[in-house]
Amino acid sequence: AFSMQAIQTFVRIRPWDPDKETASLSFSIDTNEVESPETENSLGYDRVFGPDITQAEVFVHVAPFLGDIFNGCNTTIFAYGQTNSGKTHTMLGPSGKLTLSPLQMGIIPRCARWIFSNINDLAKGCESDVQFQVRACFLEIYNGRVFDLLSNKGARTPLKIRAESAAGGTIDVQGATEIVVEATDSVMNVLATGSKQRATASTDMNLHSSRSHAIFTLYVEKRVREADSKGNSAGFKCHISRVNLVDLAGSEDVSRSHAAGARLKEAVSINSGLLQLHRVLGALGKGEAHVPYRDSALTRVLQDSLGGSARTVF
Ligand code: ADP
Ligand code: MG
Protein backbone atom coordinates (compact mmCIF):
# COMPACT_ATOMS: atom_id res chain seq x y z
CA ALA A 1 0.00 0.00 0.00
CA PHE A 2 1.36 3.37 -0.98
CA SER A 3 -0.04 5.87 1.44
CA MET A 4 2.91 8.07 2.35
CA GLN A 5 3.21 11.46 0.82
CA ALA A 6 5.66 11.06 -2.05
CA ILE A 7 7.85 14.05 -1.14
CA GLN A 8 8.64 14.93 2.45
CA THR A 9 10.93 17.51 3.97
CA PHE A 10 12.71 17.00 7.28
CA VAL A 11 14.85 19.60 9.01
CA ARG A 12 17.72 18.61 11.29
CA ILE A 13 19.13 21.38 13.47
CA ARG A 14 22.81 21.01 14.20
CA PRO A 15 24.17 21.72 17.71
CA TRP A 16 24.99 25.37 18.16
CA ASP A 17 28.66 26.31 17.71
CA PRO A 18 29.31 29.36 19.91
CA ASP A 19 32.70 29.98 18.24
CA LYS A 20 31.26 30.42 14.79
CA GLU A 21 27.68 31.50 15.21
CA THR A 22 26.16 34.58 16.71
CA ALA A 23 22.48 34.19 15.92
CA SER A 24 20.32 31.38 17.19
CA LEU A 25 17.38 29.79 15.47
CA SER A 26 13.92 29.36 16.86
CA PHE A 27 12.19 26.03 16.19
CA SER A 28 9.66 23.60 17.62
CA ILE A 29 9.97 19.85 17.43
CA ASP A 30 6.36 19.53 18.63
CA THR A 31 4.77 21.52 15.83
CA ASN A 32 7.58 20.82 13.31
CA GLU A 33 8.12 24.51 12.66
CA VAL A 34 11.26 26.57 12.16
CA GLU A 35 11.23 30.36 12.28
CA SER A 36 12.92 31.99 9.34
CA PRO A 37 15.61 34.37 10.69
CA GLU A 38 14.96 36.72 7.76
CA THR A 39 11.19 37.03 7.71
CA GLU A 40 10.41 35.79 11.23
CA ASN A 41 7.64 33.67 9.75
CA SER A 42 7.36 30.10 10.94
CA LEU A 43 7.59 27.48 8.23
CA GLY A 44 6.15 24.02 8.72
CA TYR A 45 7.96 20.81 7.70
CA ASP A 46 7.09 17.14 7.77
CA ARG A 47 9.46 16.78 10.69
CA VAL A 48 11.91 18.91 12.64
CA PHE A 49 14.77 17.22 14.53
CA GLY A 50 16.45 19.17 17.31
CA PRO A 51 20.21 19.24 18.03
CA ASP A 52 20.00 16.36 20.52
CA ILE A 53 18.68 13.81 18.03
CA THR A 54 20.93 10.81 17.43
CA GLN A 55 21.91 9.32 14.08
CA ALA A 56 19.83 6.26 15.00
CA GLU A 57 16.71 8.34 15.66
CA VAL A 58 17.08 10.15 12.34
CA PHE A 59 17.22 6.80 10.59
CA VAL A 60 14.10 5.57 12.39
CA HIS A 61 12.20 8.26 10.50
CA VAL A 62 14.01 7.66 7.20
CA ALA A 63 13.64 3.86 7.13
CA PRO A 64 9.89 3.86 6.27
CA PHE A 65 10.85 5.44 2.95
CA LEU A 66 12.85 2.34 2.08
CA GLY A 67 9.85 0.10 2.70
CA ASP A 68 8.98 -0.62 -0.91
CA ILE A 69 12.46 -1.06 -2.27
CA PHE A 70 11.82 -4.79 -2.65
CA ASN A 71 8.68 -4.04 -4.67
CA GLY A 72 10.26 -1.93 -7.36
CA CYS A 73 9.84 1.47 -5.68
CA ASN A 74 12.71 3.95 -5.89
CA THR A 75 13.66 6.36 -3.12
CA THR A 76 15.87 9.43 -3.07
CA ILE A 77 17.20 11.09 0.06
CA PHE A 78 18.77 14.51 -0.34
CA ALA A 79 20.82 16.41 2.19
CA TYR A 80 20.33 20.09 1.46
CA GLY A 81 21.73 23.11 3.28
CA GLN A 82 24.60 25.53 3.55
CA THR A 83 28.18 24.37 3.95
CA ASN A 84 28.79 23.32 7.56
CA SER A 85 25.10 22.72 8.27
CA GLY A 86 25.60 18.97 8.82
CA LYS A 87 24.77 17.38 5.43
CA THR A 88 27.73 15.01 5.36
CA HIS A 89 27.42 14.32 9.10
CA THR A 90 23.82 13.25 8.56
CA MET A 91 24.38 11.26 5.36
CA LEU A 92 27.66 9.54 6.24
CA GLY A 93 28.85 10.33 9.75
CA PRO A 94 30.99 12.78 11.75
CA SER A 95 33.52 14.70 9.62
CA GLY A 96 32.88 12.43 6.65
CA LYS A 97 34.99 9.68 8.26
CA LEU A 98 34.61 6.19 6.84
CA THR A 99 35.58 4.20 9.92
CA LEU A 100 32.54 4.69 12.08
CA SER A 101 31.31 3.22 15.30
CA PRO A 102 27.74 1.90 15.01
CA LEU A 103 26.46 4.94 16.94
CA GLN A 104 28.13 7.41 14.57
CA MET A 105 26.82 5.88 11.38
CA GLY A 106 24.78 8.23 9.25
CA ILE A 107 21.99 7.47 6.81
CA ILE A 108 24.13 5.82 4.09
CA PRO A 109 25.68 3.03 6.23
CA ARG A 110 22.36 2.53 8.02
CA CYS A 111 20.51 2.20 4.70
CA ALA A 112 23.03 -0.42 3.60
CA ARG A 113 22.71 -2.32 6.87
CA TRP A 114 18.89 -2.11 6.64
CA ILE A 115 18.88 -3.46 3.07
CA PHE A 116 21.18 -6.41 3.85
CA SER A 117 19.29 -7.32 6.99
CA ASN A 118 15.97 -7.29 5.11
CA ILE A 119 17.46 -9.38 2.31
CA ASN A 120 18.55 -11.98 4.88
CA ASP A 121 15.02 -12.12 6.31
CA LEU A 122 13.34 -12.26 2.90
CA ALA A 123 15.65 -14.91 1.53
CA LYS A 124 15.27 -17.19 4.54
CA GLY A 125 13.71 -20.47 3.55
CA CYS A 126 13.25 -19.57 -0.12
CA GLU A 127 16.87 -19.37 -1.28
CA SER A 128 16.25 -21.18 -4.51
CA ASP A 129 13.20 -19.14 -5.52
CA VAL A 130 14.27 -15.61 -4.64
CA GLN A 131 17.68 -14.15 -5.32
CA PHE A 132 19.01 -10.70 -4.47
CA GLN A 133 21.90 -8.68 -5.70
CA VAL A 134 22.92 -5.23 -4.44
CA ARG A 135 25.13 -2.96 -6.52
CA ALA A 136 26.64 0.39 -5.64
CA CYS A 137 27.29 3.34 -7.90
CA PHE A 138 28.97 6.59 -6.87
CA LEU A 139 28.78 9.70 -9.05
CA GLU A 140 29.73 13.29 -8.65
CA ILE A 141 28.26 16.28 -10.46
CA TYR A 142 30.59 19.21 -10.76
CA ASN A 143 30.02 22.22 -13.01
CA GLY A 144 27.11 20.43 -14.67
CA ARG A 145 29.21 17.38 -15.62
CA VAL A 146 28.84 13.86 -14.26
CA PHE A 147 31.92 11.96 -13.04
CA ASP A 148 32.19 8.28 -12.16
CA LEU A 149 33.95 8.04 -8.78
CA LEU A 150 34.35 4.26 -9.10
CA SER A 151 35.96 4.10 -12.51
CA ASN A 152 39.12 2.01 -12.41
CA LYS A 153 40.47 4.02 -15.31
CA GLY A 154 41.00 6.74 -12.75
CA ALA A 155 40.51 9.35 -15.45
CA ARG A 156 38.24 12.23 -14.65
CA THR A 157 36.37 12.06 -17.91
CA PRO A 158 32.76 13.17 -17.72
CA LEU A 159 30.09 10.53 -18.41
CA LYS A 160 27.33 11.02 -20.92
CA ILE A 161 23.78 11.04 -19.72
CA ARG A 162 21.62 8.95 -21.99
CA ALA A 163 19.24 11.08 -24.07
CA GLU A 164 16.32 8.88 -23.14
CA SER A 165 16.76 6.35 -20.38
CA ALA A 166 15.66 2.96 -21.67
CA ALA A 167 12.52 1.61 -20.07
CA GLY A 168 13.45 -0.70 -17.24
CA GLY A 169 17.12 0.16 -17.67
CA THR A 170 19.13 0.45 -14.53
CA ILE A 171 21.73 2.92 -15.71
CA ASP A 172 20.82 6.24 -17.15
CA VAL A 173 24.39 7.41 -17.10
CA GLN A 174 26.42 5.72 -19.82
CA GLY A 175 29.26 3.64 -18.55
CA ALA A 176 28.81 4.31 -14.84
CA THR A 177 30.57 1.64 -12.80
CA GLU A 178 28.35 -0.58 -10.65
CA ILE A 179 30.06 -2.65 -7.96
CA VAL A 180 28.39 -5.68 -6.41
CA VAL A 181 28.26 -5.27 -2.61
CA GLU A 182 27.55 -8.10 -0.21
CA ALA A 183 27.56 -6.42 3.19
CA THR A 184 27.73 -3.04 4.91
CA ASP A 185 31.54 -3.33 5.05
CA SER A 186 31.81 -3.63 1.29
CA VAL A 187 29.55 -0.57 0.94
CA MET A 188 31.98 1.34 3.18
CA ASN A 189 34.88 0.18 0.99
CA VAL A 190 33.13 1.45 -2.11
CA LEU A 191 32.51 4.77 -0.36
CA ALA A 192 36.22 4.91 0.52
CA THR A 193 37.27 4.21 -3.09
CA GLY A 194 34.97 6.93 -4.40
CA SER A 195 35.93 9.44 -1.73
CA LYS A 196 39.61 8.91 -2.56
CA GLN A 197 38.93 9.70 -6.24
CA ARG A 198 36.93 12.71 -5.21
CA ALA A 199 39.77 13.94 -3.01
CA THR A 200 42.52 13.49 -5.63
CA ALA A 201 40.58 15.77 -7.94
CA SER A 202 40.89 18.64 -5.53
CA THR A 203 43.40 20.38 -3.32
CA ASP A 204 40.85 21.13 -0.62
CA MET A 205 38.38 18.33 -0.03
CA ASN A 206 35.97 20.38 2.10
CA LEU A 207 35.88 23.14 -0.45
CA HIS A 208 35.40 20.66 -3.29
CA SER A 209 32.61 18.76 -1.55
CA SER A 210 30.75 21.98 -0.87
CA ARG A 211 30.82 22.74 -4.60
CA SER A 212 29.75 19.43 -6.05
CA HIS A 213 26.84 17.03 -5.62
CA ALA A 214 27.71 13.48 -4.52
CA ILE A 215 25.21 10.81 -5.55
CA PHE A 216 25.64 7.40 -3.95
CA THR A 217 23.19 4.83 -5.29
CA LEU A 218 22.33 1.33 -4.12
CA TYR A 219 20.56 -0.80 -6.71
CA VAL A 220 18.60 -3.71 -5.32
CA GLU A 221 17.86 -6.43 -7.84
CA LYS A 222 15.35 -9.07 -6.84
CA ARG A 223 14.89 -12.17 -8.99
CA VAL A 224 11.89 -14.34 -8.31
CA ARG A 225 11.55 -17.79 -9.90
CA GLU A 226 8.41 -18.07 -11.97
CA ALA A 227 6.48 -21.28 -12.39
CA ASP A 228 4.34 -22.25 -15.39
CA SER A 229 0.80 -23.67 -15.00
CA LYS A 230 2.24 -27.15 -14.26
CA GLY A 231 4.45 -25.73 -11.51
CA ASN A 232 7.64 -26.14 -13.50
CA SER A 233 10.30 -23.51 -13.33
CA ALA A 234 9.87 -20.92 -16.08
CA GLY A 235 12.81 -18.66 -15.42
CA PHE A 236 13.13 -15.58 -13.24
CA LYS A 237 11.25 -12.32 -13.05
CA CYS A 238 13.53 -9.45 -12.22
CA HIS A 239 12.76 -6.21 -10.32
CA ILE A 240 15.35 -3.49 -9.88
CA SER A 241 14.91 -0.59 -7.47
CA ARG A 242 17.32 2.05 -6.37
CA VAL A 243 17.96 4.23 -3.36
CA ASN A 244 19.81 7.45 -4.17
CA LEU A 245 21.61 9.09 -1.27
CA VAL A 246 22.55 12.58 -2.32
CA ASP A 247 24.85 14.99 -0.50
CA LEU A 248 24.10 18.22 -2.36
CA ALA A 249 26.49 21.12 -2.90
CA GLY A 250 26.27 23.94 -0.36
CA SER A 251 23.25 26.14 -0.85
CA GLU A 252 24.96 29.40 0.13
CA ASP A 253 23.82 32.50 -1.65
CA VAL A 254 26.15 33.39 -4.55
CA SER A 255 25.00 36.95 -4.85
CA ARG A 256 26.29 37.60 -1.33
CA SER A 257 29.57 35.73 -1.64
CA HIS A 258 31.16 38.02 -4.28
CA ALA A 259 32.37 35.05 -6.32
CA ALA A 260 34.33 35.72 -9.51
CA GLY A 261 35.92 33.77 -12.38
CA ALA A 262 36.02 30.00 -11.88
CA ARG A 263 34.30 30.32 -8.48
CA LEU A 264 31.43 32.21 -10.10
CA LYS A 265 31.06 29.55 -12.78
CA GLU A 266 30.87 26.88 -10.05
CA ALA A 267 28.38 28.89 -8.07
CA VAL A 268 26.14 29.50 -11.07
CA SER A 269 26.25 25.80 -11.93
CA ILE A 270 25.43 24.76 -8.33
CA ASN A 271 22.58 27.21 -8.10
CA SER A 272 21.05 26.23 -11.43
CA GLY A 273 21.24 22.54 -10.37
CA LEU A 274 19.53 23.29 -7.06
CA LEU A 275 16.98 25.58 -8.69
CA GLN A 276 16.16 22.95 -11.28
CA LEU A 277 15.77 20.33 -8.54
CA HIS A 278 13.39 22.72 -6.77
CA ARG A 279 11.37 23.12 -9.99
CA VAL A 280 11.23 19.37 -10.65
CA LEU A 281 10.10 18.60 -7.10
CA GLY A 282 7.62 21.49 -7.28
CA ALA A 283 6.10 20.13 -10.51
CA LEU A 284 5.96 16.59 -9.06
CA GLY A 285 4.41 17.88 -5.82
CA LYS A 286 1.66 19.68 -7.74
CA GLY A 287 1.13 16.73 -10.08
CA GLU A 288 1.94 18.77 -13.18
CA ALA A 289 2.11 16.96 -16.51
CA HIS A 290 5.40 18.48 -17.62
CA VAL A 291 8.31 17.89 -15.26
CA PRO A 292 11.47 19.72 -16.38
CA TYR A 293 14.00 16.95 -15.69
CA ARG A 294 16.07 17.67 -18.75
CA ASP A 295 17.27 21.08 -17.69
CA SER A 296 20.08 20.02 -15.33
CA ALA A 297 22.53 17.14 -14.97
CA LEU A 298 21.36 16.52 -11.40
CA THR A 299 17.70 16.02 -12.25
CA ARG A 300 18.51 14.02 -15.38
CA VAL A 301 20.65 11.56 -13.44
CA LEU A 302 17.88 11.12 -10.87
CA GLN A 303 14.96 11.26 -13.33
CA ASP A 304 13.66 7.71 -12.92
CA SER A 305 13.88 8.00 -9.15
CA LEU A 306 12.02 11.24 -8.62
CA GLY A 307 8.72 10.78 -10.42
CA GLY A 308 6.33 7.89 -10.78
CA SER A 309 6.34 5.58 -7.82
CA ALA A 310 9.34 7.22 -6.23
CA ARG A 311 9.50 8.74 -2.80
CA THR A 312 11.74 11.59 -1.84
CA VAL A 313 12.94 12.84 1.52
CA PHE A 314 14.77 16.14 1.78
P1 ADP B 1 28.23 20.01 5.52
O1 ADP B 1 28.46 18.65 4.91
O2 ADP B 1 26.80 20.45 5.44
O3 ADP B 1 29.15 21.06 4.99
P2 ADP B 1 29.24 18.75 7.92
O4 ADP B 1 28.40 17.54 7.94
O5 ADP B 1 30.63 18.60 7.46
O6 ADP B 1 28.53 19.94 7.09
O7 ADP B 1 29.17 19.36 9.39
C1 ADP B 1 30.03 20.42 9.84
C2 ADP B 1 30.60 20.08 11.22
O8 ADP B 1 29.56 20.03 12.19
C3 ADP B 1 31.27 18.72 11.25
O9 ADP B 1 32.40 18.77 12.08
C4 ADP B 1 30.21 17.81 11.83
O10 ADP B 1 30.76 16.66 12.44
C5 ADP B 1 29.50 18.74 12.81
N1 ADP B 1 28.09 18.36 12.95
C6 ADP B 1 27.14 18.47 12.00
N2 ADP B 1 25.95 18.02 12.43
C7 ADP B 1 26.14 17.59 13.69
C8 ADP B 1 25.29 17.01 14.69
N3 ADP B 1 23.99 16.77 14.46
N4 ADP B 1 25.85 16.68 15.88
C9 ADP B 1 27.16 16.91 16.12
N5 ADP B 1 28.02 17.46 15.22
C10 ADP B 1 27.51 17.80 14.02
MG1 MG C 1 29.76 18.10 3.38
From TrEMBL:
A molecular function (GO) term: microtubule motor activity
Transmembrane portions of the chain: none
Locations listed in the record: Cytoplasm
Source organism, top-level taxon: Eukaryota
Protein name: Kinesin-like protein
GO cellular component, one term: cytoplasm
Similarity remark: Belongs to the TRAFAC class myosin-kinesin ATPase superfamily. Kinesin family.
Domain Kinesin motor residues, every copy: 6-314
CDD domains tied to this protein: KISc
Residues binding ATP: 81-88
Protein keywords: ATP-binding, Coiled coil, Cytoplasm, Microtubule, Motor protein, Nucleotide-binding
Methyltransferase among keywords: no
InterPro entries: Kinesin-like_fam, Kinesin_motor_CS, Kinesin_motor_dom, Kinesin_motor_dom_sf, P-loop_NTPase
One GO term (biological process): microtubule-based movement
Lineage, highest ranks first: Eukaryota, Cryptophyceae, Cryptomonadales, Cryptomonadaceae, Cryptomonas
Pfam families (UniProt xref): Kinesin
